Amino acid sequence: MNAIIDDQEKPETLSERELNYRQALDCIDNQEYDKAISLLDELAGPACRDPKVRYARAVALLSNGEYRRAGTDLAFTIALDRTQLQAYRHLGFVLLTMGKEESAIEVLEEALRRDPRFVEAWCVLADVHMDLGEHDKALNALDKALSLQPGNAEVHCKLAMYYMSRGDMRGLRAEYEVLRELEPAVAAQIAELLP
């Protein structure tokens, strides 16, 4: 999460607001989500127009399971900073979780128009298509993600889920072999499903 901080200023030169923001990021890193949300609520005030504060609060809210509030902050983040691609990805996930698949597709496709190499957006888009039963579109999204990052464990995990949902044991076994190297714990779970 601290990757959000762009500057490398020394703490003694930072404003109280920036120090509180960094403290909130540390709370997120330490999985102290309630504390992070409290700090970020104070920073946000009634009508925050700071996309980094909105995004950080959205991450904490997502981690706390507060999807509706997170979705609001993510929508504001995008409105305030259209370059914040992770906000699109997370908003797509929130919309999918809330059963708003068509809206999720719109958000994710906008992210992919901005950066067609955004692998995480391809992965969430595949999830949306799977939820809709659009298996060919899901596989196309995963194939695109795989072509961009062949060694990405998340892509291989999603491919394993795809093959499992389709009853394709050959595909599942192939992903199992890849995941034995990339994600041994996930591979162990898949092994229990293989004949």
List the helices and strands and how they pair.
Layout: H1 16-29, H2 33-44, H3 51-63, H4 67-80, H5 85-97, H6 101-114, H7 119-131, H8 135-148, H9 153-166, H10 169-182, H11 184-191
Helix pairs in contact: 1-2, 1-3, 2-3, 3-4, 4-5, 5-6, 5-7, 6-7, 7-8, 7-9, 8-9, 9-10, 10-11
Order of helical and strand elements: HHHHHHHHHHH
Principal-axes geometry comes out as elongated
Q: How many H/I helices? A: 11
Kindly, what is the distance between the CA atoms of the first and last residues, rounded to a whole number of angstroms? 40 Å
State the share of residues found in helices, binned by percent.
over 70%
- Give the rounded overall mean pLDDT: 92
Low-pLDDT residue spans: 1-7
Give the DSSP E fraction (strand runs of 2 or more residues): under 5%
Structural class: mainly alpha
**What is the alpha-carbon Rg in Å?**
19 Å
Strand count, sense and barrel status of the largest sheet are: none
- The number of E-state strands comes to 0
